[in-house]
Amino acid sequence: MNTGGGYSIPYWHVDAFAARPFGGNQAAVMRLEGWLEDDVLLAIGAENMFAETAFVVPDDSGAADWELRWFTPEAEVRLCGHATLASGHVLLGLDQAREAVRFRTRQAGVLEVRRLEQGYELALPAIPTAPGDFAAAAAALGASPVEVWRSPDRYNVFLYDSEMQIRALAPDMRALAALGGEQFIVTAPGAETDVVSRVFVPGAGIDEDSVTGSAHAVLAPFWAARLGRDRFTAFQASARGGRLSCRLDGHRAWLGGDCVTVVEGTFFL
After folding, report:
1. Are strands 252-257 and 231-236 parallel, antiparallel or unpaired?
2. Is 52 one of the annotated active-site residues of the chain?
3. Which residues of 17-39 are buried (b: 16+ CB within 10 A; e: fewer)?
4. Torsion angle of the four alpha carbons 236, 223, 190, 118, in this order, in degrees rounded to the nearest 10
5. Which residues neighbour 116 within 8 Å (Cβ) at sequence distance 6 or greater?
6. Quick one: pLDDT at residue 3?
7. What are 164-196's pLDDT values in tens digits?
8. Cα 51 to chain center, whole Å?
9. HSE on the CB side for 93, CA within 13 Å?
């Protein structure tokens, strides 16, 4: 059996924001003793072929417990919620005495995952948006939104009237990809939850994401203002689907959900 060059990495495949296997969003979590070269991390992300691979390294700075970086099959990203939740699930599972774990990231500050009575709660920076216009994206989505809201961090929210409209969208992914590495979030009031959404990021190699933590860090302040309360339930209506609780706490968005480990093993280089 060929096991590569002899360097082995502990590996977990986790379904995040899922109460059972085959739901939520898939993430690989890989625990390193020190950082590998960026091209190697990117190659591993491409090999895994999940929306995100999370790499964790013990943090010696004192600012957090672990350093954390995320890679899609095509690029490093500045923020990923579901792979952070998956990383917390793995690391808290390895240390049952801990109630929380903190991650130092390169572009999103210090993030935290806490145990709940059932599942976990993830703290991300709340991402504000403002009214704007994105005609090319709206055309590529295939149906005109009621409102468009945007942030300088390339998050774009397209508000529709109903969950039925959200589910019926069939975007032109090639046209969206041509607009760059933007995140396109379509959302409406939900039928069984307060809010429903879908998320498209074809410019980063992810046509439709299954369940997107960073998108809900955008939707938390967006919908809290509309609903007139600081918490709500949400469903991301992808093929796999995922349910979340969302809570706005000042400048932080707390996202609650379950995780399931479906594979544990060793990755060989």
Report:
1. unpaired
2. yes
3. bbeeeebbbbbbbbbbeeebeee
4. 60
5. 256
6. 55
7. 999 999 999 999 999 998 999 999 999 999 999
8. 9
9. 16
Q: Are 5 and 263 in contact (CB under 8 A)?
A: no
**239 token code pair:** 């093929």
CB 83 within 8 A of CB 76: no
CA dist 173 and 200 (Å) reads 8
What is the enclosing helix (H) or strand (E) of 149?
strand 147-150
Say what angle helices 81-94 and 213-227 make with each other, to 10 degrees. 110
Using CA atoms of 23, 27, 28, 31 in order, give the dihedral in degrees to the nearest 10: -120
Question: What is the number of other CB atoms lying within 10 angstroms of the CB of residue 221?
Answer: 18
Model's pTM, two decimal places? 0.90
Tokens 């403002």 found at:
130
Tokens of 81: 């919620």
Of residues 33, 52, 67, 182, which has the active-site annotation?
A: 52
Please tell me the distance from the alpha carbon of residue 14 to that of residue 258, in angstroms, as a whole number: 10
Please give the Cα distance from 266 to 31 (Å, whole number).
Answer: 10
DSSP alpha helix (H) spans, 49-134: 81-94
Give the type of residue at 170. Answer: A
3-state secondary structure of 109: coil
Going by the DSSP 8-state scheme, the letter that residue 170 receives in this structure is -
